[in-house]
């Protein structure tokens, strides 16, 4: 978690209210379809939102894992067809998608 925060803070050229969507592309998440999830986010152009491929987020087996910063909201088992819901509800309206939250960090 610490290294993720440090990475987030290093992007000083972004406005403070901008978000970053990190989609794990490490081995386990890729086996679970993370490449399609990343592509779906990249196809959804949202102003002031950056979408990046991430190294392992440390939650292997629960993927594909998606982390939204700086909100520190984790989504697990994300499917490509669920991405529009995250985009519309979380990224555009600022409301977490409760039913997709990662239970370990959002009990
Ligand atoms: S491979 Fe995605 S969290 Fe580890």
Topology:
Elements (H helix, E strand, L loop, with lengths): L1 H9 L8 E6 L2 H5 L2 H10 L5 E6 L11 E4 L3 E3 L7 H10 L15
Protein name: (2Fe-2S) ferredoxin domain-containing protein
InterPro entries: Thioredoxin-like_sf
What does this structure look like?
With 107 residues, the chain is of the alpha+beta class. It has helices at 2-10, 27-31, 34-43, 83-92, and strands spanning 19-24, 49-54, 66-69, 73-75. A four-stranded mixed sheet has the order 2-1-3-4, with helices on one face. Mean pLDDT is 89; it is low at 1-14. FE2/S2 (inorganic) cluster is lined by residues 24, 26-29, 56-60, 63, 65.
Can you give me a brief rundown of this structure?
The chain is of the alpha+beta class. The chain contains 4 helices and 4 strands.
- Helix/strand structural class: alpha+beta
Total helix count? 4
Rounded mean pLDDT score = 89
CATH superfamily: Glutaredoxin
Helix fraction bin: 25-40%
Could you tell me the number of beta strands?
4
Largest sheet: 4 strands, mixed
What form results from the Cα inertia axes? globular
Evaluate the radius of gyration. Answer: 13 Å
Distance between the termini: 18 Å
Number of domains: 1
Q: What percentage of amino acids are in beta strands? A: 15-25%
Order of helices and strands: HEHHEEEH
Cofactors and ligands present? FE2/S2 (inorganic) cluster
The CATH class turns out to be Alpha Beta
CATH fold label: Glutaredoxin
CATH architecture: 3-Layer(aba) Sandwich
InterPro entries: Thioredoxin-like_sf
Protein name: (2Fe-2S) ferredoxin domain-containing protein
Pfam families: 2Fe-2S_thioredx
